[in-house]
User: Which sequence fits this backbone?
DNA sequence: CCCATCCCTTACGTTAACGTCATGCATGTG
DNA sequence: CACATGCATGACGTTAACGTAAGGGATGGG
């Protein structure tokens, strides 16, 4: 019979590995999308005879990609964000540049936070008004039910 | 001479009005984009001899559109959101439906909040590590400056 | 009157992010 | 062995959100 849950067998103690189908199923995206992220340089899985093999790190990167997408960032932006994670600690100038990029990204995210907070607040206000309208409507309906017009 | 700041004259006490160029300049977008939003049913300005005339309400809607875009929503989603604002208080069923949509949208935004918070936290951690690396680098450079190799 | 400045519509072009299809290798199963 | 399953690589198709170009009316200044 075939192994159903994991298409890649793992030696005990070794890192858990995934085939492209595993990840696509787990995250509800298509294999095509995952390959596309690789084309764009967001993923670099190992290969075994042509087949892509993803480790825990690749999986984590994929999660970050999807989160970034949900936040409305373009893949190019997400790539920059991912690159912040694996900067080599040898080149001082690159470290400084990375730090600045990270801070800029944080600032941007905090602006988003505020805009979301504002939107939520406004939606809550609209919601309260609508609830009022509903209550008045229902009250009017009850009144009409007792002595209203035909 | 020509009126420079406002291309549409306003009677005292009347609502401030805008031409398409005014709004595009104010928000840093193209007239084409604004017309496109109208094509998609997100805006409904008045017309005066073919020309679009925007009031305060239209301007506010445009602001909401742009905010929604910054939050990563598609125009179709934003349209739904905008429709929440001008639901007529007469049809009870529509009120209830609007209320539900609004709540769903709020839930979605709150998920976004959490994801942003998580991302910011992780970026801060990376930032701290990078700062450490920089400090170590600088310290090593100073030491090397005193007695390091050529 | 001519020109510059807005505005309009129509229509085709472009980019991002995949979807879809064709084709082919490798492996495991009845 | 025939077949299904999973993965691979191309290559073309699609959708959203505009950009861009072409052609034309209205207005105001020099």
Assistant:
């Amino acid at each position: 019979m075939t192994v159903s849950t994991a298409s890649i067998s793992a030696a005990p103690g070794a890192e858990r590995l995934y085939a492209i189908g595993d990840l696509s199923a787990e995250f509800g995206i298509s294999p095509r999308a995952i390959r596309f992220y690789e084309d764009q340089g967001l993923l670099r899985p190992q290969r075994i005879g042509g087949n892509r093999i993803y480790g825990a790190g690749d999986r984590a990167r994929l999660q970050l990609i999807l989160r970034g997408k949900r936040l409305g960032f373009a893949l190019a932006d997400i790539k920059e964000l991912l690159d912040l994670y694996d900067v080599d600690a040898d080149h001082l100038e690159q470290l400084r540049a990375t730090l600045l990029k990270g801070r800029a990204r944080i600032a941007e995210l905090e602006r988003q936070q505020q805009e979301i907070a504002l939107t939520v607040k406004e939606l809550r206000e609209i919601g309260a008004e609508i609830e009022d309208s509903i209550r008045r409507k229902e009250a009017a309906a009850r009144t009409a039910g007792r002595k209203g017009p035909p």
About this structure: Chain A touches chain B through 41 residues (CB under 8 Å). Residues 18 and 54 of chain A are 5 Å apart (CA to CA). The helical segments of chain A are 20-27, 31-39, 56-70, 75-85, 92-147.
